[in-house]
Each structure stands twice: as C-alpha cells, then as structure tokens.
Design goal:
The chain is mostly helical and about 350 residues long. Helices cover about 70% and strands about 5% of the residues. It has a domain of about 230 residues: MetI-like fold, CATH 1.10.3720. It contains 16 helices and 5 strands.
Length: about 350
C-alpha cells in the first residue's frame, strides 16, 4: 500500500512539473510588457528597465525558468548574502527558513512557494488566492453536497420505479441539466429567480458570502446569497449523480444475492440501504471526486455572473487586465487541487478494492 501511495505522489509531482513548464512557456511568449503594465504607458525608460531587472526579464529565458521553478519549490537554493544576486533570498518576497549551507553565500531553504506579485495591485498572488479560495471552496462544497444528496435520493426512486413517469421525467431533466452550458444556466437562473421573482424569493443576483450590517458595521455570514450560485453550479453534477445512481443500482438489484435477500423476506428499504446502495456507490466515487475537482476549477462563469468573489472571478479580472502572475498562480493552484483530489481518490479506491493496488 505504501509503494502504491508513493507512486501516485511521484506521478502527481511529475504532472505538476509539466503543468508548471507549460504555464511558464505560454505566458512568456504572450505579447505584453509587464513593466509598462505596472508603471503605466507614460513610464520613462529608466523606470521600465529597473522593473524589468527586478522581475528578471533582463535574463535569458532558461535562467528565468530555473528561477521560476526555484520560487515555486518548497525546498530551494538561494543566495542569502548578496542583494544584487538574481537568486537572493529577499525577505520581502519569501517566507523561508534556512536548512543548511551549501557554500559561503548559498543556503538550501524551506519556504512557502512564491507565486510572484500582481502587476495591478502589487499584492502577493499567494495572498490573493488565500483571500478568494475559501469562497470558491464553500461554493463548490455546497454545490456538490446538494448534487450528492438530492441526486442519490432521486436516483434510488428512479431505480425502484423503473420506466415510470417519474423515472422518465427525471431522466429528461437530467439530460437537459447535463447539456445546459454553465454560463447560460447562470444567466437564466439569475434573471428568473433574482430579477423577475426577486420580490418574492428575496434572493440577490449579486451578492457575497459575507455582508456588512448597516447599523453596526459588523461583517456577518449571509448564506442566502449562496443559494443561486450553488444551485446553478450543482445542476450538472446532480444530473450525473442521478443517472449513475439509477443505472448502478439497477445493475446491483439484478444480482443473485439481492434476490436471495428478497426470498428471505427482508424489507425493500433494508435491502436498498444495507446491501444494494452500498455496493452501487463505487462508480459515484470517481464521478463525485472528478466533478468536485472540476467545480473548484471551473466555477469561473458562475462566479462571474453572480459576482462571487472566488478564484474564478479573479481569473476573469486578471485576463481582462493581462495580470499574468495572478493567472499563472491561479492555474497552478487549481492544477494542484486537481492532482491532489485524483491522488486521494486513487488511495480511497485502493483501500476499497485491493485489485487496484495489484494492477
């Protein structure tokens, strides 16, 4: 089991390394001058050259790439004495601790990965992600939770009443839910429930998870603003869960041990909950984990339509402003989440089914 976990972790590291390389290459061949983005179009030549030197854009592209990898690595090599060095351990950039000396000027250090600074706000990208990630995480978690519980419940009824009107109607809605693009669904749901019916629903089209009390000025949790974006984001995984639960449960209900349980006189509720449902959830593990990872990464349109201050929102804003460090940091962060969830699911599979470890 330990060898299996180590292999998966190594594969994950290789994937992250590949994504990092692709992201660096893509964003370094795109047009645009970071120095002018930071200083404005009226900046003088000397200021532009100083910014380029500070960012390292006066170095060869391969040297920039090595420095970028060094910045992202939690264990890295830095010059600790010379502030003019390209590899200098600048305390304004890095939160680091020296591990041991490898030369008179260089140390191997353990540090928080440095994702550069935003061209527009000058804030560290890691700080921007720290501020916005919780909102995206809460939105994705509530959405997938809604999809799991409602989807499994509907899927069970569809399997028990196969080919009934309820079954056919649920499958029709599921197909529509899967086919509906996120941005279109977000616009329609926001227009219908927040604009047309807002007076009756009390729901706001543009809201955040936290609101300010007009009288006390205190910040409080406003879960009402979570309803529409979470419902919209959960529509597609809900449709997948319904279909997978129905099909998998129908397959399990046709097994011999289920017929034996029925012959012994067990109630249908007990057969479903203790035997059939438990054994039909394996396909859902992959689907749910994959969808949760995609919700974390793909809530861009939902967040943008509902003005939800998450990672998706800052990606869109950064694309509009050509704020490359924020985009690069966001893509790498999302990739890390995807890899981590996939590794976690592989380990869960290996625990549930030992044949996975053998293969």
């Amino acid at each position: 089991m330990l060898n299996f976990i180590i292999k998966r972790l190594l594969y994950g590291i290789l994937v992250i390394f590949g994504v990092t390389t692709v992201v660096f290459v893509l964003f370094n061949i795109l047009p645009g001058d970071p120095a002018r983005m930071m200083l404005g179009q009226r900046a003088d030549i000397n200021s532009i050259e100083a910014i380029k030197k500070d960012l390292g854009y006066d170095k060869p592209i391969f040297t920039q790439y090595l420095n970028y990898i060094n910045d992202l690595s939690p264990i890295s090599v830095h010059n600790t004495l010379n502030p003019e060095s390209y590899w200098y351990l600048n305390p304004q950039k890095y939160t680091a601790k020296k591990i041991f000396r490898i030369s008179s000027t260089k140390h191997i250090v353990a540090k928080i990965p440095y994702l550069r600074r935003s061209y527009q706000t000058k804030k560290k990208v890691s700080e921007i992600l720290t501020e916005t990630f919780p909102n995206t995480f809460i939105l994705a978690t509530v959405s997938i939770g809604f999809a799991i519980f409602i989807g499994i419940f509907i899927g069970i009824f569809c399997a028990l009443f196969k080919n009934s009107l309820f079954d056919k109607f649920s499958l029709l809605i599921s197909v529509i839910g899967i086919s509906l693009p996120s941005f279109f669904a977000a616009i329609i749901i926001a227009w219908l429930f927040a604009f047309l019916l807002g007076e009756y629903t009390g729901l706001n089209m543009f809201g955040s998870l936290y609101s300010i009390n007009d009288y006390t000025g205190e910040e409080y949790l406003n879960l009402k603003n979570l309803i529409l974006p979470a419902f919209t984001l959960g529509i597609r995984p809900l449709a997948i869960v319904v279909e997978l639960t129905r099909n998998s449960l129908l397959e399990v209900l046709s097994q011999d041990y289920i017929r034996t349980a029925k012959a012994k006189g067990l109630r249908m509720k007990k057969i479903i909950m203790k035997h059939a449902l438990k054994n039909s959830l394996n396909p859902l593990i992959t689907a749910i984990s994959g969808w949760f990872a995609s919700l974390m990464a793909g809530a861009v349109f939902i967040e943008y339509v509902f003005n939800w201050k998450g990672i998706g929102m800052i990606i869109v804003e950064s694309l509009e402003k050509y704020d490359f460090p924020v985009i690069m940091g966001s893509v790498l962060f999302v990739s890390l989440i995807l890899v981590f969830i996939n590794i976690f699911v592989d380990i869960i599979y290996a625990i549930i089914d030992p044949r996975v470890r053998i293969n």
